[in-house]
Amino acid sequence: MSSLSLQNVSLNYALSGTGGGADDVLRNINLSLDEREFVVVIGRSGSGKTSLLNLAAGFLNPSRGAISVDGVPITGPGRDRAVVFQDDALYPWLNARDNIGFPLKLRHVPKAARDLRAEELLNLVGLSGAGDKKIWELSGGMRQRVGIARALASDPKFLLMDEPLGALDALTRSRMQSFLLNVWQATSTGVLLITHSIDEALFLATRVIVLEPNPGRVAADLRLDFGGRHLAGEEAAAIRGSAEFKSAYEGLTLAIHTETAEFAA
Ligand SMILES: Nc1ncnc2c1ncn2[C@@H]1O[C@H](COP(=O)(O)OP(=O)(O)OP(=O)(O)O)[C@@H](O)[C@H]1O
Ligand SMILES: [Mg+2]
């Protein structure tokens, strides 16, 4: 089983050469993401969530510490790690099928094989028969599903998502949460998902990492199984209404909003 691991990782944008203040944005982050895990990172705005994802994706290099997949240091973005952002960024001149097949086209996979894989993925994301649709013919939720299908086209080991459901209305968002759990179950992908939503973090995660700001550090690391219960057939509403969920909600709210003594003064 593959594992993406951050060891004692710190990030300082002034040192990374991309500009920014002299303070560490992330400090001494230790985190490992195994295939089959669904890790959700939550924390206040500016706590370094997107920076963390960009490090894991290989878009940024850590200022200190190491990031590796199965013990091999990463040197940049790679096919083993696919990224999905909040804005779908699909190619509007291509239909859904060709958007999904695009990463394979870059690897010179023949058209027939690309189309076959795209059809499989359209089925997986619940868009069978929508391959010929233009991007502007799809709803926001459908676009995001095409974006996720495109990310899965190269069979990544890890799927890294930065607030992928943030732009969706509440009803579509809750449907998409079930959808994400199903996709995660159907593939053997390790998921790292960033959200602002406490409810979403609890509902999806096998592990929730709470980041505390200034500098971004892991303030809590919780193991959960509400997503597993949903996949086993329990209704989302029943899970959310349960005493365990409510108590986990209170606990996570507290973990996010409590300043440590060091910074409370
Ligand atoms: N490219 C950059 N160059 C310099 N500083 C940056 C850069 N990107 C982010 N920062 C700074 O790093 C800190 C963390 O930002 P980051 O975007 O990682 O936070 P976040 O937790 O994702 O916030 P949000 O919830 O608002 O998306 C902030 O202080 C931000 O100003
Ligand atoms: Mg962010």
CATH class: Alpha Beta
Q: What is the helical fraction, as a range of percent?
A: 40-55%
Ions, cofactors and other bound molecules: adenosine-5'-triphosphate, magnesium ion
- Run of helices and strands: EHEEHEEEHHHEHEHEEHHHH
CATH architecture identity: 3-Layer(aba) Sandwich
Number of helices: 11
- By DSSP, the count of extended strands is 10
Query: Number of domains in the coordinates?
Result: 1
Mean pLDDT: 92
Topology:
Blueprint: E1 3-11, H1 13-16, E2 26-34, E3 38-43, H2 49-57, E4 64-69, E5 72-73, E6 81-84, H3 96-106, H4 111-124, H5 140-152, E7 158-162, H6 170-186, E8 190-194, H7 198-204, E9 207-212, E10 217-223, H8 226-231, H9 236-241, H10 243-257, H11 261-264
Parallel strand pairs: 3-8, 3-9, 6-7, 7-8
Antiparallel strand pairs: 1-2, 1-4, 4-5, 9-10
Helix pairs in contact: 3-4, 3-5, 4-5
The structure holds adenosine-5'-triphosphate and magnesium ion.
Magnesium ion binds next to helix 2.
Compact overview of the structure:
By secondary structure, this protein is an alpha/beta fold. It has one domain (3-197): P-loop containing nucleotide triphosphate hydrolases (Rossmann fold, 3-Layer(aba) Sandwich).
Write out key terms for the chains shown.
about 260 residues, alpha/beta, Rossmann fold, six-stranded mixed β-sheet, four-stranded antiparallel β-sheet, 11 helices, 10 strands, about 20% strand, disordered C terminus, binds adenosine-5'-triphosphate, binds magnesium ion
